[in-house]
Amino acid sequence: MPRQNTAGSPDPRTLPPEAVHTDPRGRIITLPPFDTAGTTVIESEPGAVRGNHYHRHESHLMYVVSGRMIYIEEDAEQRISVAEIGPGQSVVSPRGVAHTTVFPERTVFVTLSDWDRRGRRYEDEVVRVAPLEDRPEVAPYLEGIGELVRWRQG
């Protein structure tokens, strides 16, 4: 399912690879252009919830290698947009925009960050928000996922 904005039309932030070259050896996938200060590979188990925050300084591009994720974003007017992002697709989380991801299956994705995430820098610039996955308009996207695995900081 392509990412949908609040009006129900395809959202231009769901990005396919810029190019894919295939030959007998395999594939070379060129990701969309994105200024990068760091790269992280994240593995998520079925039902995992990540996010429920926004970044003061960072934007990041998330590229799904395998599996799939439900990407949830809240705009400045508190409207929710939801998209399923699958293998070979990317989505950008802009700085200052609340977002979360829910994983219906085991998923591996790569995050390209335009902010140095090392050490305490990541946690110091993240602002936590109420769980976006609990919003009623998100429920249809989560059907069949089962119990969600959430991380709560104490």
Automatic annotation (TrEMBL):
Protein origin, superkingdom: Bacteria
Spans annotated as Disordered: 1-25
Cupin type-2 domain: residues covered: 42-105
Transmembrane segments: none
Gene3D superfamilies given in the database record: Jelly Rolls (2.60.120.10)
InterPro entries: Cupin_2, RmlC-like_jellyroll, RmlC_Cupin_sf
Name this protein carries in UniProt: Cupin domain-containing protein
Organism: Streptomyces mexicanus
